């Protein structure tokens, strides 16, 4: 039996022209919220849900459109204002039936208190990012939203536009919004946002047909007529309106396919959820929010996954320089870093925040290995290399997948060969030191303490503690693997996996 809030949502969706397969069931539990389940077998290619763009909550459809446009509130700032505005209308909002189902906020770290952020995220990839996010979000609100509350003709009720409401709206956007099209930008897509996420094992995809004609926007350069824009960031499906013409055998719960927009001559007014694999009866139907590590999942969606192979740990350039300063003079370190750069190497990030990635397998980025190696070169070897770079330029990469630096061979970026087997001992020692320094950022608790704490922790009652422990522990396990990688005693797997192309996803801003 569906919960009252789900029944209200379904009535609202029907009244707005949403369609969903009767083979989908929405399940609402107090512990886990809403999930979507297959009531019978679903087949790859089935269109299981259709959502009218006009019924999505966007800066174009909201009653606040004029205010948003006049105030120049772009992107997510405008969408957050639209959410606060529609919430302020209560029962008078056209989205009331949808808004009543949403949580007040999603428990993502931007809505945690600063104390919680400092305590729970200390040392993790998210700590600094979330501190910065909180400050930036506050500034955005103060600069753009607060002044609107003083404009009498707008008659905005300050209660619904306070900083807490802004943070809450931002948390809903980060965890539930979709990129709709060039005209609407990102928006809240009812029904699509009921599906939970599974990394790399999703069942449905969210698709949006680019609309060129339903727009009065002046950017006429959207050339992808009828092209399917696949949104990799989550989504789900919902059940079909029984009146949909192409539902077969609904009474017997045979999965029915809604007419796809791509079949119906590029109907750009509808968004769709399409099955990308067969799903058997009784199982949950998952979307994907992207191939994300735990830091990014917690940051945007408020949860983590056990054994997430997209996890990474970063070692900041600052930490590397700190290690250098404990062994070498500043002059030495600066000269070696400069040579490393002249050889054409760089770290991830930008000049203000450079970092090196350690993959889920504990493998450091090759650029870090080369920097450490150059840092540790004896003076005469350094001078020889420096001279040869001055004479021949930075032609240090050969074509055969390796780089030869003063007698040591390093694999090139694209190369697959094991890096460890080629590492000089002093580079391994430096890696060990860096692993220890990175580990110390987590504070006094050992990884064993964290694991015990996780065992005692209730996912339902202590969600923030649970997911932050999961993040910490998995990051620390990567550092353990880095130590193994750098340890001369352990024979490494010579067929190490190719580095996954991972970005530092935690730097995202909503
Ligand atoms: C788009 S909503 C999905 C529907 C949501 N379960 C609800 O109750 O409305 C995204 C949110 O669902 C939850 N969620 C999604 N996938 C999850 C997963 N694999 N594990 C835990 N929570 C998940 C997170 O709270 C996330 O912010």
Draw up the topology in text:
Layout: H1 4-15, E1 19-20, E2 24-29, E3 33-38, E4 47-52, H2 65-71, H3 75-89, H4 96-99, H5 114-120, H6 127-149, H7 163-176, E5 177-181, E6 185-188, E7 204-209, E8 228-231, E9 270-275, H8 294-301, E10 313-316, H9 317-327, H10 330-342, E11 348-350, E12 353-358, H11 366-376, H12 379-392, E13 402-405, E14 408-411, H13 425-440, H14 447-456, H15 463-486
Antiparallel strand pairs: 1-4, 2-3, 4-9, 5-6, 7-8, 7-9, 10-12, 11-12, 13-14
Helix pairs in contact: 3-7, 10-11, 11-13, 13-15, 14-15
Bound molecules: S-adenosylmethionine (SAM).
S-adenosylmethionine binds at residues 33-34, 106, 175-176, 193-197, 234, 301-303.
EC number: 2.1.1.-
Family: Belongs to the class V-like SAM-binding methyltransferase superfamily. Histone-lysine methyltransferase family. SETD6 subfamily.
Keywords: Methyltransferase, Nucleus, S-adenosyl-L-methionine, Transferase
The Rg value, from CA coordinates, equals: 26 Å
Bound molecules: S-adenosylmethionine
The percentage of residues in β strands lies in: 5-15%
Tally of contiguous helical segments: 15
Strand runs, count: 14
Shape, principal axes of CA atoms: globular
CATH class membership of the largest domain: Alpha Beta
N-C termini distance: 36 Å
GO cellular component, one term: nucleus
Family: Belongs to the class V-like SAM-binding methyltransferase superfamily. Histone-lysine methyltransferase family. SETD6 subfamily.
Keywords: Methyltransferase, Nucleus, S-adenosyl-L-methionine, Transferase
InterPro entries: N-lys_methylase_SETD6, Rubisco_LSMT_subst-bd_sf, SET_dom, SET_dom_sf, SETD3_SETD6_MTase
């Amino acid at each position: 039996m569906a919960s009252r809030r789900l029944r209200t949502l379904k009535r609202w969706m029907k009244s707005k022209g949403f369609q969903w397969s009767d083979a989908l069931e929405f399940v609402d539990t107090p512990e886990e919220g809403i999930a979507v389940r297959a009531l019978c077998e679903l087949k790859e290619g089935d269109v299981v849900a259709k959502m009218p763009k006009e019924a999505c909550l966007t800066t174009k459809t909201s009653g606040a459109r004029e205010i948003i446009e006049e105030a120049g509130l772009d992107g997510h700032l405008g969408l957050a204002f639209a959410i606060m505005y529609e919430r302020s209308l209560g029962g008078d909002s056209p989205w009331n039936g949808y808004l009543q189902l949403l949580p007040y906020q999603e428990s993502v770290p931007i809505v945690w208190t600063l104390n919680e952020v400092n305590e729970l995220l200390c040392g993790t990839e998210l700590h600094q990012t979330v501190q910065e996010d909180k400050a930036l979000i506050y500034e955005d609100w103060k600069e753009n939203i607060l002044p609107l509350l003083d404009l009498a003709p707008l008659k905005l009720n300050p209660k619904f536009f306070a900083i807490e409401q802004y943070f809450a709206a931002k948390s809903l956007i980060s965890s539930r919004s979709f990129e709709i099209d060039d005209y609407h930008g990102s928006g809240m897509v009812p029904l699509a946002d009921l599906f939970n996420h599974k990394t790399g094992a999703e069942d449905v995809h969210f698709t949006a047909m680019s609309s060129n004609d339903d727009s009065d926007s002046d950017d006429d350069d959207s050339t992808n007529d009828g092209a399917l824009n696949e949104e990799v960031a989550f989504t789900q499906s919902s059940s079909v309106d029984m009146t949909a013409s192409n539902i077969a055998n609904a009474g017997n719960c045979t999965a029915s396919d809604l007419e796809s927009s791509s079949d119906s001559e590029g109907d750009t007014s509808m968004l769709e959820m399409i099955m990308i694999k067969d799903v058997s009866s009784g199982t949950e139907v998952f979307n994907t929010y992207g191939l994300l590590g735990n830091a990014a999942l917690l940051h945007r969606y408020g949860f983590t996954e056990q054994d997430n192979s997209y996890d990474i740990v970063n070692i900041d350039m600052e930490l590397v320089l700190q290690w250098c300063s404990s062994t070498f003079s500043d002059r030495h370190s600066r000269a070696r870093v400069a040579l490393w750069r002249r050889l054409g190497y760089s770290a991830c990030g930008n000049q203000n925040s450079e970092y090196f990635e350690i993959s889920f397998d504990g493998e450091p980025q090759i650029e870090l290995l080369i920097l450490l190696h150059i840092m540790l070169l004896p003076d005469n070897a350094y001078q020889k290399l420096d001279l040869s770079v001055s004479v021949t330029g930075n032609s240090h990469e050969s074509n055969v997948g390796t780089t030869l630096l003063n007698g040591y061979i390093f694999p090139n970026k694209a190369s697959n060969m094991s890096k460890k087997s080629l590492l000089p001992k002093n580079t391994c020692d430096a890696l060990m030191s860096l692993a220890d320094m990175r580990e110390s950022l987590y504070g006094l608790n050992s990884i064993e303490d964290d694991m015990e704490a996780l065992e005692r922790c209730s996912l339902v009652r202590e969600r923030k503690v649970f997911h932050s422990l999961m993040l910490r522990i998995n990051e620390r396990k990567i550092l353990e693997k880095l130590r193994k990688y750098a340890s001369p005693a352990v024979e490494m797997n010579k067929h190490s996996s190719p580095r996954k192309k991972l970005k530092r996803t935690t730097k995202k801003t909503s």
